[in-house]
């Protein structure tokens, strides 16, 4: 039997077009997807933008067209703040030590009123001696100054108080012991030199006389913490030493009632308040 001759298979040379078409289709789909991803949804963008602006600035945002040479209407405006108050230096309030009276921090008006009362009370108490010219009471920037002529307090060249002096100073002590202020007793002499077994100089005499007055005040109940004694000898006279009257005036004891927080001025010294002769 004769063998059938095998027919040759037909080869399609155009089948690559199918694969190429599939590739083009996939490539087109890819670019469509990429375009969809890259495109912005304007509506969603506006919502997101408004939300962010409102969250950070408190004002909604909307696109505003800007013309050339014109500032945007949404530009931030300068804020007008009220002027800051002026800084005022406040002096620190002095601390009152434990046990001290609060009068040491009196305001000026209260301090002056207190000093006026003290001055009037002492003047009323010593009026006869003031009229005789043996005592002078006056105000200074430091407080109240009581000048007492030494002739009614001590014998010449001595530092022991006479009986009339004890009586006078005892009455003064009744006023001083009620006061919370510092009290300074300053002794002065004239320029006549002194040489005695007890006192070698006017410095010593004036200092011991001041101490004698302070000791009497302490005996009469004046607070020792408030008392100061100082001697100035022949220095800081209040009258010329070339006349008997001037010599007598310079022999004195000054009792200074220091006002709390007295104003500092050139030449003011609490110790020398009675020595300078600053009569107000």
UniProtKB/TrEMBL annotation:
Subcellular localization: Cell membrane
InterPro entries on file: Bact_OuterMem_StrucFunc, MotB-like_N_dom, OmpA-like, OmpA-like_sf
PROSITE patterns, sorted: OMPA_2
Source superkingdom: Bacteria
Predominant location category: membrane
Membrane topology qualifier: Single-pass membrane protein
Residue span, OmpA-like domain: 141-261
One protein family per Pfam: MotB_plug
GO cellular component: plasma membrane
Keywords: Cell membrane, Cell projection, Cilium, Flagellum, Membrane, Transmembrane, Transmembrane helix
CDD domains assigned: OmpA_C-like
Spans through the membrane: 20-37
Family membership: Belongs to the MotB family.
Protein name: Flagellar motor protein MotD
Designated gene of the protein: motD
């Amino acid at each position: 039997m004769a063998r059938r001759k095998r027919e040759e298979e037909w080869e399609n040379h155009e089948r690559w077009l199918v694969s190429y078409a599939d590739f083009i289709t996939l490539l087109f789909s890819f670019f469509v997807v990429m375009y969809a991803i890259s495109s912005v949804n304007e509506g969603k963008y506006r919502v997101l933008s408004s939300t962010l602006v409102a969250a950070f600035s408190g004002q909604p945002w909307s696109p505003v067209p800007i013309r050339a040479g014109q500032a945007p209407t949404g530009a931030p405006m300068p804020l007008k703040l009220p002027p800051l108050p002026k800084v005022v230096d406040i002096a620190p309030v002095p601390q009152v030590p434990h046990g001290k009276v609060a009068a040491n921090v009196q305001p000026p008006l209260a301090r002056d009123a207190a000093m006026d009362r003290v001055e009037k009370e002492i003047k009323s108490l010593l009026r006869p001696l003031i009229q005789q010219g043996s005592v002078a009471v006056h105000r200074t920037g430091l407080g109240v100054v009581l000048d007492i002529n030494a002739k009614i307090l001590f014998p010449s060249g001595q530092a022991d108080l006479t009986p009339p002096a004890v009586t006078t100073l005892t009455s003064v002590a009744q006023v001083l012991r009620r006061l919370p202020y510092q009290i300074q007793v300053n002794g002065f002499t004239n320029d006549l030199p002194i040489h005695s077994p007890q006192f070698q100089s006017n410095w010593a005499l004036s200092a011991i006389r001041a101490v004698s007055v302070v000791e009497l005040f302490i005996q009469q109940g004046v607070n020792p913490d408030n008392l100061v004694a100082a001697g100035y000898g022949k220095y800081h006279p209040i009258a010329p030493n070339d006349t008997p009257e001037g010599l007598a005036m310079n022999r004195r004891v000054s009792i200074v009632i220091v006002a709390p927080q007295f104003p500092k001025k050139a030449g003011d010294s609490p110790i020398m308040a009675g020595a300078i002769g600053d009569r107000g």
